[in-house]
């Protein structure tokens, strides 16, 4: 299949390209669209066949449900029932934006979209190109990240093409994503709101609006066995992982440098913030952002992983010395890329 390429500038949106992309989605096609978090692989969420094609194109396990993207908050009621007050509070505060809410699904959502669950994940994205396409399509858009399943998420159109060229109908290039990590996912179907995935919206902000601490799903911090049930099925699959082995290295920059220098060879690389580059003169380094502006670390994370992975790299030692705010999502993605292989360099010589 030929993958059509559209370039759409979010400040001067070309109506014709928006219409063409929307028409492809309406007709059951697969179109990768830019969102503020990562690129999504969009299809009509109400069209079972279109949704099944998403799973095929990505090589995604069928038991991993998709997020349904809507253009306006009010559309929530078309796809969800028993919506609690918290959902309206959070939507009011953070939509459009990098927040996904899991709610009770209406029966009009096909089982392929929800992977057979009675709940559905819904998000109203902020990116103007995404919103214009969803609105013009006139249907809710199911969109997982537009990468091959298990690869780091795409934050640029070229990442999408590297993974999916020839496997999807079109890609809309809207430039690099602003946030760079996926949305935060909150489950509102249980007795207490529960964070299923840390993401672009820091948990602290969610807690301010909810007026209480969020329960955090155990899958966020640990490995989940293949037979265990988790609330966000995607959390149990291998994720964000480059070909190379990733090791998450904790401790001060000095002790991390000592730990890595002992083990590094020409096939090793380090992914770190700009402030730490000077500690690793003995090894190939990719800087993915700066601690001064933590949002740049989120923006650069997946690009950095992809960049190091295209070279002859066997091991990537990854650093993120803080985990407040948005960095909790960065640490979570690095731990997942590492298969939760994390070492404390202060403890291990
Ligand atoms: O920022 C994002 O959320 C991006 C952009 C494209 O919107 N999308 C994204 O989709 O990250 P994906 O498919 O890569 O991740 C969706 C996550 C998976 O972990 C999945 O298991 C979980 O959401 N999920 C979807 N529906 C769910 C449901 N009904 N209950 C619990 N978890 C659900
Ligand atoms: Mg994904």
Model description:
- Helices cover about 30% and strands about 20% of the residues.
- Strands 1, 2, 3, 4, 5, 6, 7, 8, 9, 10, 11 and 12 form a twelve-stranded mixed beta sheet that branches. The chain has a five-stranded parallel beta sheet with strand order 15-14-16-13-17, with helices on both faces.
- It is built from eleven helices and 17 strands.
- The protein is globular.
- The chain has about 350 residues and is an alpha/beta fold.
- Magnesium ion binds next to loops.
- Threonylcarbamoyladenylate (TXA) binds near residues 65, 119, 120, 143 and 196.
Question: Which terms summarize this structure?
Answer:
349 residues, alpha/beta, twelve-stranded mixed sheet, five-stranded parallel sheet, globular, binds threonylcarbamoyladenylate, binds magnesium ion
Bound molecules: threonylcarbamoyladenylate, magnesium ion
Low-pLDDT runs: none
Number of strands: 17
Radius of gyration: 20 Å
Q: Beta-strand percentage?
A: 15-25%
The helix/strand order is EHEEHEHEHEHEHEHEEEHEEHEEHEHE
Helical run tally: 11
The end-to-end distance, rounded to whole angstroms, is 52 Å
Shape: globular
Major sheet size, sense and barrel closure? 12 strands, mixed
Helical content, roughly?
A: 25-40%
Question: Structural class, from helix and strand content?
Answer: alpha/beta
């Amino acid at each position: 299949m030929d993958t059509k390429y559209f370039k759409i500038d979010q400040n001067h949106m070309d109506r014709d390209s928006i219409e063409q992309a929307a028409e492809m989605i309406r007709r059951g096609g697969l179109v990768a669209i830019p969102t503020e978090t990562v690129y999504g692989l969009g299809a009509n969420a109400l069209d079972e066949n279109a949704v099944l094609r998403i799973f095929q194109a990505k090589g995604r396990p069928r038991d991993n449900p998709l997020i349904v993207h809507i253009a306006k908050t009010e559309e929530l009621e078309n796809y969800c029932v028993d919506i609690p007050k918290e959902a309206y509070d959070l939507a009011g505060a953070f939509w459009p934006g990098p927040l996904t809410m899991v709610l009770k699904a209406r029966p009009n959502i096909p089982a392929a979209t929800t992977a057979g669950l009675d709940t559905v994940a819904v998000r109203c994205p902020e990116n103007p190109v995404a919103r214009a396409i969803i609105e013009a399509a006139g249907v809710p858009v199911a969109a997982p990240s537009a990468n091959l399943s298990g690869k780091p998420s795409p934050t640029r159109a070229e990442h999408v093409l590297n993974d999916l060229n020839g496997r999807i109908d079109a890609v809309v290039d809207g430039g690099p994503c602003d946030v760079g990590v996926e949305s935060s996912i909150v489950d509102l179907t249980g007795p207490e709101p529960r964070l299923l995935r840390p993401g672009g919206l820091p948990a602290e902000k969610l807690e301010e609006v909810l007026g209480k601490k969020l329960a955090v799903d155990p899958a966020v911090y640990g490995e989940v066995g293949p037979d265990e049930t988790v609330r966000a099925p995607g959390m149990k699959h291998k994720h964000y992982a480059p070909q190379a082995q990733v090791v998450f290295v904790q401790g001060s920059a000095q002790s991390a440098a000592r730990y890595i220098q002992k083990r590094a060879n020409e096939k090793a690389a380090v992914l770190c913030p700009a402030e730490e580059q000077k500690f690793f003169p003995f090894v190939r380094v990719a800087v993915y952002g700066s601690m001064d502006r933590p949002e740049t670390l989120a923006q650069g994370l997946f690009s950095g992983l992809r960049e190091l992975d295209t070279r002859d790299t066997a091991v990537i030692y990854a650093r993120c010395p803080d985990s407040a705010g948005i960095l909790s999502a960065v640490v979570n993605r690095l731990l997942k890329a590492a298969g939760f292989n994390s070492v404390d360099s202060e403890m291990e010589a």
